[in-house]
Amino acid sequence: MRDTVAYASTLAVFVLTAVPAWGADNRSALHQAGCVLRPAEDWPVVQSGAAGRKPVVFGTAYTAPALTFRIVDTKGQPPQGARITLKYIWHWLEYPYPEHPFGVISDDWDVVECPVAQDAVTYVPEFVVKARGWYSGAFLRSVLPPWKKKMPEFYQVEIVVLGSCGRGHVLDRQQLEEYRTNPKAVELVCRQFGKH
């Protein structure tokens, strides 16, 4: 009980709704919003086999809807110096892979990072996710391995407020489609880092 009371004073709330599309050009729309794109190929090799390599197979592109966030602390103020990060994640068949003779279904992602606005309302433009993979060999077309989906495919976005919150939020494709067709608010409650 004591821990619950201690955490209650350090909670922050952010609200998520859909906004009209900003256009199909990822980089210019992101730049206009003050956001930065960090594609999968720019991440360290520990993420997966993607770093520094050119993709060789592509799934169907998915346009994630534009979103707006209202990010505040328990006093209704925007967290100072915070950034919101959206990680657009897709599956792809990775081969070769240690101890897995048929490879594995791996995740990769592009990251969009935006500053939290001074008025607590932060807009993130629509983003075209180009799911891609770095293997196009025989296992991609064969009955082995027995996975149903082998082509790269976008499946979710993870949302985290850096410098403010210790917990994130996940939206899958179905939830994103709900935001596109029927904008609604979602409240997230997260604990600030360094406060106990």
Helix content: 10-25%
Quaternary structure type: single chain
Overall residue-averaged pLDDT value: 75
Helices, by number, come to 3
TL;DR?
The protein is mainly beta and 196 residues long. Helix content is 12%, strand content 39%.
Describe the secondary structure blueprint for this structure.
Elements: H1 2-8, E1 11-18, H2 26-32, E2 36-38, E3 57-58, E4 62-64, E5 67-73, E6 83-94, E7 104-115, E8 121-124, E9 127-129, E10 132-133, E11 153-162, E12 169-172, H3 173-181, E13 186-191
Antiparallel strand pairs: 1-5, 1-13, 2-7, 3-10, 4-9, 5-8, 6-7, 6-11, 11-12
Question: What does this entry look like structurally?
Answer:
This protein is mainly beta and 196 residues long. The protein has one domain. The chain has three helices and 13 strands; from the N terminus they run H-E-H-E-E-E-E-E-E-E-E-E-E-E-H-E. The strands form four sheets. A five-stranded antiparallel beta sheet has the order 2-7-6-11-12. A four-stranded antiparallel beta sheet has the order 8-5-1-13, with no helix packed on it. It has a two-stranded antiparallel ribbon with strand order 3-10. A hairpin with a 6-residue loop joins strand 11 and strand 12. The protein is elongated and about 55 Å long. The N terminus is likely disordered.
